[in-house]
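Summary for the steering committee. The consortium agreed at its last meeting that each partner would contribute one worked example illustrating the joint modelling workflow. Our contribution is presented below. We chose a case with several input lines so that the handling of multiple components could be demonstrated. No manual editing was applied between input and output; the record is shown as generated.
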Amino acid sequence: MTKTARKERLIWLDIMITLVALELMSCFYYGLRSIVLGGVCIAVSLITEILCLRLMNRQFTADDLTCTSDALIIALMMPATMDYGIAGIACVFAVVAAKNVFGGRRNIIFSPAAAAYIFMLTSWEKKLLLYPQPHMRTGIFDEPEGLVNSVSYVYNTTGKMNYTDFELLMGNFSGPAGSVSILMLLIGAAMLILRRDISAGAFLGTITGTAFLSYIVPASPTAEIRYTFVTNMVLFAAVYIISDRRIAPKKEYYAFFYGLFIAVFSYVIVLTTGKENAIVIVSVLFTPVSLGIKNLEKKIELAHIEASETAAENFSAVDTTVIENSDEKTEDTSNE
Amino acid sequence: MFLVNELIALLAANLILTQALGTSTIFIAAGSRKNLVGTAFMITVFTFTGSVCAYFADKLLPEKYSDFKLLIYVISIGILYVILLSAFYFISRNNFENSRKYIHLSVFNCAVMGTLLTVSGKASENSSITEYMSAGLEAGIGFIVAALILTAAYRKLNSSKVPAAFRGFPAMIIYLGIISMAVYSLI
Amino acid sequence: MNKERSSVFSGIIGNNIVLSSLMVVSPVIICGDTLKNAAALVYAFSAITFLSVLISSFVPKKLSYTVKVIIYAIISSLVYIPVKWAAQEFFPGAVERIGIYFPLLAVNSLIIFRSEAELYKLPKNRMIIKLIFYILGFDAVMLTTGFIRELFAYGTINGRIVDVSTPVIGLAQPFGGFIFLGLFCGLYRWIRSIVISKKEEIRGDADVSGK
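What follows is the complete predicted structure of the assembly.
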């Protein structure tokens, strides 16, 4: 097994651990249904991935398990009571249209989870943006009742936040199944950054951009910086979508600006239109930017290699002339 | 903030991402930097000057002859086509051979004709020539933005890692589709 | 001889103008969301393209390329007028629904460019057959797209409700058209490559047995 392949698997494992922790928190608030939803997403993604690879004449390996982490991210961005059919269609879309059509994990262009989220947003907006209240259990096969708007929606439209800091930290408020558990997200982010599983530059860029703008241009007189991170899936997207190593630029300082621009754009959109979870949409819109930066990185890398090769050639040329000269000198002295 | 909003408005009004006008031309434009500059310039020239022609056609043509609007537009674009070719020929005969293919590619293009028809459809009786001109210019800039979006991913979409059946056009269409989906969800 | 014949008939499958050359894709992407729209577009495209190419084939070949292209565009925009009148008669409401894509069909690249590069070089009867197959190829793609998108986006077939448990509304939107056409195009190419490789296998076997 090569070093990169081993690294890829370890990254997947680390991400899965943090996602499972979020899934467990979601189970605590919404019951078994959220676990079943996650299971459906993983199963559909896995089956679709195997089928796609078979059609491409490729073998399914442990590296291809990354589809399961994408599936879990999708599940955690949905309300815990989401229709299983819709979740399944979204996962098929993520694996087929947003990933394998472009060559699968070897040639990732979009974040499959982000693309699938937008796909759901454009087709089933009402179902996607209405959430159950925490501790309101819905049976595995029951129709959800008493769904409400998310805290993000209320905050975007009124600028009010009626929850204590403790409730916000623990994720005890209505919103996407896994993206509201702020404490878990913070722990997960720290772990993933320390183990270099996600792009620290992109993460810091997103956080800096959001913090800076929410300080300079607050959403309302009562708005506070911490509310901006808690709402609109900002923290969740910063960890699992924007800082995804497959998408973000390689060099940390480029990744920082990539994250910064996404944060700035999404903040302005939330501020001017009140669009919920705009950061996920903006992250997909910024894919060409990321690809452009990556192209630039490659060009710089090639230029460096060329420069070092020319330097090495010059050096060896100088070296051979020095050797030749010294040989001539020794010959001269021996003749003498 | 104003800049961000303007950029979003430009994306939202983008003829390629929202109306699929000039899709096949953009694939040629995204192929190389030279093609991008050449095609984008010519499309912008045609949409800009064409919308001026569309303004006069709309103002002068009586309502009962509105079915002849397309014919008038085609004749206008045809005249512009000849003028542009002649201008390029007389300005620089050396560059004429290189630049004329972009003129041929852009004339009667869906992006150009679609812009004229869209501008005319949106215009009211009180619309001024500047509104037509700005819409024409916006369409040209929109084409450049869409071409840049595609150029960024061009190498990846044509890479050998993409399955042979999807390599090139199909992958490019799906890529544009996902970007268009993101734009749609913002509106 | 067989090769020549198959090249004439290839417009439907082997050399489909939409799936193979990506011509006239904008109406398919934008208006191909229902079978009704698809039928109206099929009528408009077929009538305008057939008549325009047929009339344009009489334009003297000696004229310069630029002049010929302008004349073809003028002819097709003249043909568009009676076709539109007929559409208002036979497909009430279709012209409004299709909007700018109706007149845009009159300046499609099959009439303006492909015909000059390919069709007018053929003898008249072969040109007509090839043109008909090109048109049929577009019609097949348009109707298939309209049928599938309507079924999965609205849960209807030609306006009649069908039991589709989870309609995907996004499929009716322009981005849905882009994604659907991309997938359709990929599927078409995949099937085509299988057919070609099988044909080559059979040919190879025949060569071996012939020897």
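The CA atoms of residues 328 and 334 of chain A lie 10 Å apart. The longest strand of chain A covers residues 130-131.
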